[in-house]
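The freezer alarm interrupted the setup, so I double-checked each line after restarting. Inputs confirmed:
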Amino acid sequence: MTKRNHFNRALVPTLALLVCGAAAAAPVKIGVLETLSGPQASSGLAYRAAVRYAIDQINAAGGWNGEPVQLLEYDNQGGPAGAADKLKAAAADGVQLIVQGASSAIGGQITEDVRKYNLRNPGKEMVYLNVGAEALELTGEKCNFYHFRFAGDAQIRTKALVAAMKQANALGTRVYSINQNYSWGQDMERAIVDNASAGGYQVVEKTLHDVNKVQDFAPYVAKIAASKADSVLTGNWSNDLLLLMKASRSAGLKVRFGTVYLDQPGNLANAGDLAVGHFVVHTFNAESAGGEGEKFVNDYKAKTGHDPVFIEPQTVFGMAMVADALKRTPAKGGKLDVNAFAKALESATYKSPMGEMRMRAADHQVQMPMVVSTVSKDARYKADGTDMGFTPVKRFSAAEASSPAQASCDMKRPD
Amino acid sequence: MDQFLVSLMNGLVYGLLLFMVSAGLTLIFGMMGVLNFAHASFYMLGAYFAYMLQDAIGFWGALVVSPLLVALVGVVVERFFLRRVHRYGHAHELLVTFGLSFIIAESVKLFFGNYPVDYRIPAALDIPAFSVGGAQYPAYRLLMGGIAVAMFVLIYLLLTRTRVGIVVRSAIYKPRMAEALGHNVPLVFMGVFGVGAALAGLAGAVAGAFYTTNPNMALELGVMVFVVVVVGGLGSLEGAMLASLLIGVITSLAVSVDRSLADLFALAGAGDWARSVGGLMTLKISSLSATIPFALMLLILLVRPGGLMGEKD
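Predicted 3D structure, all chains:
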């Protein structure tokens, strides 16, 4: 017995020394796992710019545990296979927080891979910070303790869009739903149907089409014209949105578009005047956010060289919530205890220029303010170097924009 | 009926656009025996050149000068890249064009950014041609179709009715014999490559304004153009025309067909069973319209590997 005690007496200080040594060499590593090359790189690069900005802010405020937070970048090459590969690389590099946003298909792969990795490697867990993959299943059937979403979803976006367009008398009674045929587009279609009674409209027709393959939208526009719709609601992004709107304009169609991604850079420049009067639901509008918004825009522009648009604001706000959770997670043995961090993130809050945000623990869906804007030439902040910008129509607080947690989410927490 | 007419016309015009791009590709294939992977990049270059030039020399001027610039790029590519690797065989030529397509796409991103640029049809052309079924038909679409048809007629006459055409065809068919008769075959090859590139450039200048001019436009159209060339028969101009129109019309008409396999089973009284199976059974044809050309290509390769009008079996 005494012998063993002696042994312990000798061992404990040595161990403590070792732990202290490790403590100095274990900063938090955050890995951006985005599409940084190839045809879809533009969105990935935007996410990266926002994450870099947010990490610089965390480090300017002292980092975590007295050390700057490290940012590592991984290129998922635009597909789930590349993402799975690079996730392994990130795990090997000791990355504890994974950030990704572009594409729900890639998000689905990451959340599953992170879940499985955590099951197999207890004590070395990772967290997936989803800043933009908006498929409902990520907070539904696939929801898990290590996934957090800092963006909207189809239900949240459509609810706000419909309410604001109705209030602005721009919705009409006949709505055409056209979306891309994959998880996000299908979610949008369901949300558009679900909101029919709230918006007082009838869905005259629903169309799903291939993703980013259609060059010529004229046939779809002919279909919209034949349906005599008053407005078109769509979750389309990138070329699928731009080509659809251009085709309907050249057919002289008098429909109003309610969109989710009209604020993607390049859209207004390319669409020109035809964009005026159409709607977009987004997470940030500087004009609506007032002085705080102006401050954020100016600071972001000074640091990154461009305005915070499209998905950048939501990414910055999401990372600010991460910073809040990091601050409340004490180091354990000099390292970040990911389980403790995830628990802290479940109750994270942040006051963004748009208003109060908080994380909902039940399904890890952020509760954030939304704003619906319309394209006009009177907007205070012009977009894309054009004379047009986004004029706020209606702002929703986090509570107003919220939609209930999905019943399919069965969250299992570690003990 | 009105909607059917509009769909048909939409399909024809889209088909004619596909033809403008694939004509050059199929000509170059007929000549060199190599698929030019960079061909769709010439289409993209045409759009970007026109975008750059329109402020200085106007839309119509840009439409003329841009294809010439693209032809120049094509000539340089043939003279200084392809001719050097020609003696190493087809695989090397293929790889060179493949690499070029990446270099062109990345250079475009470097100079013009990742997002679509502000290249639009001029306001004077942004007018409806006529009205049918409650929707207007844009005049610009008719213009696109007209340019494509004029192009087809011109190339066809050039190849079949002129002395230059005879030399080109003989250089393609029996290059050594043509050379022995005193014709400068390398010059002919360079010329055909340049003209092929110019045709793609013209298509880009015309279509870039109507659709969007962005760094992915080569990728988006490129795949479809390969399908056209394979379906039509490699090297056949008439085949390319036929296949383009076929693919344009089929994709356009398919959009308005809201039927699924389950409806087919319903005819045999098994509709409820098919719907309960779900999956493929309930997939609407309209949601597959952009995929149908690939199915068509598969079918053609199985049934008639040489393509609809191809000579080589």
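Quick read of the result. Residues 2-258+296-303 of chain B form a domain with the ABC transporter involved in vitamin B12 uptake, BtuC fold (CATH 1.10.3470).
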